[in-house]
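Section: Multi-chain targets

For targets with more than one molecule, the full set of components is provided together so that the structure can be written out for the assembly as a whole rather than chain by chain. Components appear in the order listed by the source. The example entry contains two components.
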Amino acid sequence: MTYHQTQFIAASPRRRVPASRFFATLLLLLLSPVASLAQTALQRVRQTGELRVGTDATYPPFETVEGDQYSGFDIDLVNAVAKEMNVRARFINSGFDGIFPALQNGTFDAVISSVTITQERKASMLFTDPYYDSGQLIAVREETQGISTPDDLKGKTIGVQINTTAQYDLEKREGVTVNKYNTIDLALLDLQNKRIDAVVSDAPVLKYMIFKSFRGLKTVGRRFTDEKFGIAVAQGNEDLVQEINAALRKIRESGEYDRIHEKWFGEAAERAQEAEAATKKPKVFDTDLAKRTLPLFLQGIWLTAKLAFLSLLFGLPIGLLLALARVQSSRLLKAPAAVYVEVMRGTPLLVQILFIYFVLPSFGISIPAFWSGIIALTLNSAAYIAEIFRAGILSIDAGQMEAARALGMTHAQAMRRIILPQTFRRVVPPLTNEAIALLKDSSLVSVIGLTELARTGQELASRNAAPLTIWPMVAIFYLLLTFPLTRIAEYLERRWRPITRS
Amino acid sequence: MIEVTDIVKRYGSNTVLNHATFQINEGQLTTILGPSGCGKTTMLRCMNRLEKFDRGRMKIGGVEVFGTEDRKLTAAEEKELTRRLRERVGIIFQNFNLFPHLTALGNCTESPVTVKGMQRAEAEEVARHYLSKVGLGGKEDHYPAQLSGGQQQRVAIARALAMEPEVILFDEPTSALDPQLIQSVARMLRALDDLGKTLVVVSHDMNFARRISDQVIYFEGGHAVESGTVEEVFSNPQKPETRAFMQSFHEDEPGAETQEREDAETKIPGDVGTHGH
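Its structure, encoded as tokens over all components, is:
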């Protein structure tokens, strides 16, 4: 397999995307007929008394999650809106990549995730009235002089979050080198390490992050863009939009909105942060945070372990059957197996996951996220496992098959009794590779809202603005998960040693 | 009686067997002798259907096989033919092709159990019998990699014997072994001959052929040039090809050296080495 952890991150969230991601667009096109078939979102919300809200909870102070506890400005706002509508809000965490397709196929009723209202997005979804005015701000190191407006960024290297409005704004400006990062904490880390000259992002987010753990940085100048966040709803649900707008108006009138805003962005909030900042010195590795987040990781570890184990369990026999189909002489089985391997190996696992979860429902096949993930990982790894088995089978001397056949065994008997037992011994090392790759590739399923280990890390790193504490923990957990696999492989190799050596 | 009549086999434009015709008597040890590339190994492989031939006819025991161009067989017929043929004909490969993941005993029981459906206990009894017959009593639990080349060959022989074939084919039985072991191979073959098996040995080693054979078939250019007793073919060859081949043999006749070799051989009972590959 070809994915690495870093590619998972690269493939993962980003907000205020002008719906430009290729996959998302593709999926939206494919999915547009689906939404219209279903019951309207409002009907469902009224019927169940539950508003299902998708959010990518890696964006403090707007939305974060720790365990099952969601918090942030967006979270409080939606809770208030739901209360006005006499329903409960249920949050569903999802990577930003998958959030709009999931909205379209009815996984959520609405999305609140610091989504900027753009013309491009309006073409494919509905927005409520704006609920927050945001804008881009510049952050630099404490000692930096001479940068305070966007014009000062000329000739400089600037860090942004990938696919954000900050990126699109800066790319339009001449002479600015734009470095794109997967999450804002990583961009700020690079600024702190002096590899880049400034970071541009949403003002409240920058302020939060700097107070939280980037004490050597400061924001300069004023917001230089004007952006409005809205709650997104799937097309055809104008009635739900109207209800939410009415609720938004009511909480503005009642003062509830101001209270929430004050809580997250007001002076009191800033003073609290400053107070916290004064008492707590940020550490490179925060052992208290590590201890506190340890139990939160368990769920992610358990999910990753289940995904990898079940995918391997199903992938091994499928891979073996594919390999057997490929080494026998009838084209009838050989050709389809070869095509299967070609296609599954030649297309990105990410696309396969998105396809199974988001596109199949439009053909009437709706599979829950967990099993969609298992199926995608199984089908994908089976292709690689097939090639490992095929190479193993072909590596067995042709004389073995001849000797077995000459003794009267049928092809199937010879395969089962003579060729495969020898093959299994040979493919243990490459299969171990594959199993470990599968374990790490399983992180890609976060795109369909599964909070496995890597996604847990991403959420906790953003929420606590502590990438240097959280990512090493993630690494250690993956290492611990691969450990049993290598032990099993070692055991099998040891057990079979006398047969291959004298 | 094995009858081979007018067999032709081609690989593309290369004719490997060119109207091969000969007969082999039951219960005898027959050597197909000839230079390398003469088609003798292909001939042997045709005899248990590891290769198919294009034209001609072959009869082994009661089983009759025709060239693929002469008679088309359905997949089921082909399967049945192969099964019947291989039930009667065993083969010892040049490199033995033992199953490395099975012990000597496992090598000998695998086929009786899977193919004949024999009970494992019974198959093991049969296997032990033949392993001790070839001088490998006590080596049952050794894996092939733990046995010397000569011992591996004897496992291969026991493995073939366990299926109780009428005919046993040997492909170049001396070529993978140290020269000192040739004598013991010869004795082994004579012992098998005494069991009443029909043995067909392919070899390019004239010395060896002369020592072991009842009948010799001289093979060249894809067909049997001449056939007869050792005496007839070696001492009084009729055909110029045979004569030329025998000429080269007499030139490097080992003479007195042969005796020495036999003495050395008797000192290696069961050659208890544990060489790996």
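The interface with chain B takes residues 397, 399-400, 402-410, 413, 417-418, 421-422, 425, 496, 498-502 of chain A (CB under 8 Å).
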